[in-house]
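User: Hi! I have a protein structure encoded as tokens and I'd like to know what sequence might fold into it. I'm fairly new to this, so please keep things simple.
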């Protein structure tokens, strides 16, 4: 019996192969999009997944302004932030946020699904969100994927 065939191979920063992925967010539901993007960023869809290493791909999301929310979330959901001063709580609905900064909705949804540690911060840097259909990452030749094919 060959015992070398049973060794678990742990990926590290040098052995990881990172790719560029392009996702079109047009008519995509926010939560479903964010959970699948978080899986890709984390690298959980790769057979060489290692929990403590950044083995995920770089993700470029286009058409962030055309994202969908189900039900009445567009008007009823509230994003809360605080300035740190008394009475400094600020509230915004997704409708207001889409008008001002369409990227922020997708970025906050994906960031909430990543680990809350140094690795999560490192993974979040691999996400690039753009409001329109153009992006400056043509040189990396991102491979466009359909979110419906990801399980």
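Assistant: Happy to help. Inverse folding works backwards from shape to sequence: for each of the 151 positions I chose a residue that suits the local structure. Here it is:
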């Amino acid at each position: 019996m060959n015992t070398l065939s049973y060794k678990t191979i742990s990926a590290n920063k040098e052995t990881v192969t990172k790719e560029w992925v392009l996702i079109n967010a047009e008519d995509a539901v926010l939560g479903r999009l964010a959970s699948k993007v978080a899986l890709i960023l984390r690298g959980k869809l790769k057979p060489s997944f290692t929990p403590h290493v950044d083995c995920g791909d770089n993700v470029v999301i286009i058409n962030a302004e055309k994202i969908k929310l189900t039900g009445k979330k567009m008007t009823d959901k509230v994003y809360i932030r605080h300035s740190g001063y008394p009475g400094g709580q600020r509230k915004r609905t997704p409708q207001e946020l889409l008008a001002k900064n369409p990227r922020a909705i997708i970025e906050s949804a994906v960031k909430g699904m990543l680990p809350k540690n140094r690795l999560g911060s490192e993974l979040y840097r691999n996400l690039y969100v753009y409001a329109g259909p153009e992006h400056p990452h043509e040189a990396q030749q991102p491979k466009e994927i359909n979110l419906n094919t990801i399980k």
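A useful reference point when you look it over: The first helix runs from residue 30 to 42. Feel free to ask if any position seems puzzling.
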